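Appendix B: a complete holo record

For completeness, this appendix reproduces one full record from the ligand-bound portion of the collection. The bound molecule is flavin mononucleotide. The inputs are the chain sequence and the ligand SMILES; the output is the full three-dimensional arrangement of the complex, encoded as structure tokens. No fields have been trimmed.
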Amino acid sequence: MSDLTPMLGPAPVDAPTFRRLMGRWATGVSVVTAREFDVDAGLTVNAFLSVSLAPPSVLISLARDADTTPLIERSGQFAVSVLASSQRALSERFARTAPPAEKFRDLGFHRGPNGLALLDGALAAVECRVVSHTPAYDHLLLLGEIVYQELGTDGLPLVFFRSGYGEPLGAEAVRLPRPP
Ligand SMILES: Cc1cc2nc3c(=O)[nH]c(=O)nc-3n(C[C@H](O)[C@H](O)[C@H](O)COP(=O)(O)O)c2cc1C
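The structure of the chain with flavin mononucleotide bound, as generated:
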């Protein structure tokens, strides 16, 4: 048996450490929006990744108990707006548990051709048709095919790292949150 053979048995994977570990995975920040019966809903999401170029598709991972999740399941579509560094307040607004009307009050947005809300000032936005939803523990993995895309402001991104927001210092540098 080589020294590199992993030990079998229960792994010492405690949730707080895992949370800190994933906090070392720097991401951008997006707002996912949905619409059903003329009601807009949305939440802040950093579990967002591109899946394939042909066809262009993305994946988001949403908590099953988030209010927006069932709305996306029922309507079969969602939009993603990629936040700029100046849009931290929007990330905080959409990360709150609040009635949709409150989240969208006085919000600057426009509608994509499929009727979904796309945030003004975002770096980029897409509208997606849900092609599969896969339960994953307390989350739902939603695969979406892009049906509309737009490039917005050509600015710096909002960054999330170590459970905090990064602050761009220019095109080449980002000040990141320090370890606790
Ligand atoms: C930076 C950041 C990233 C987040 N990423 C996700 C995510 O990827 N998936 C998710 O389900 N919730 C995520 N959340 C939490 C939701 O935004 C939050 O639970 C929200 O209140 C859900 O809103 P809703 O219940 O109105 O849909 C994130 C929050 C923050 C601050």
